[in-house]
Fold rRNA methyltransferase 2, mitochondrial.
Amino acid sequence: MAGGGAMRSRITRTGRVLEDTFFKQAKAKGYVARSAFKLQEIQQKHKLISPGGAVLDLGCHPGAWLQVACESLGPTKRGGRVIGVDIQETRRPDKFCDDRVEIVQADARELGPEFWALHCPGGVDVVLSDMCHFTLGNSVADAFKSLDLARTAWGIATGGDNAASAEEQLELPWGAPGRGVLKPGGSLVMKILQGTGTQEFAAELRRDFTKVAWHRCKATRSESKEIFLLGLKRK
Ligand SMILES: C[S@@+](CC[C@H](N)C(=O)[O-])C[C@H]1O[C@@H](n2cnc3c(N)ncnc32)[C@H](O)[C@@H]1O
């Protein structure tokens, strides 16, 4: 993990830090982005990804979470898989990723049951969403759009607003709109830019998860509204 402030940061004229300690440590260790440390921190605290598990990573470009997720699966002989989805074309990083990582270029908002039947036929143990739009600098609009993407991830994981009753779900295939792809006991991580509606969204998640928690990462820039909302242990 990153630590120590010995390395100096590059700062723009407006004061934005371009290459900070996390950026340099990511580069030195072979992670494709500093965001690797965010998932490492969440994983260290909550132990969401288990060796041999199945992970869906929404908004996976450029691939740092794919690297951390694949590392967390343990040795290849344990099995497991990571399915990454991003609108942008994404190359599988050479370091920390192996054949267990599959990447699909797609808009997560447009994926339907056929996609999930093909790519997650047995459901997954963890759904990660670091999805983020190109931010506009308007905090109200940015929070609204990020909430929309988090709701997309929730819908993919559990059916979200469209979830069927527990009994009906048992009759549905994984990935059906009423069931989602997340297995019972599995967890959901969503990036959110805090703003109107985020607390209400967290309250809605309690219907689906045994525990709902917030996590602000050390690698998140101090000026950012970013926070991760976690749904732990799907009911
Ligand atoms: C912060 S980056 C993800 C970084 C990634 N977790 C990593 O560690 O390398 C956010 C990503 O979300 C993707 N994204 C935004 N909206 C999306 C959507 N509707 N479907 C799929 N990906 C989306 C963007 O293309 C962008 O690559």
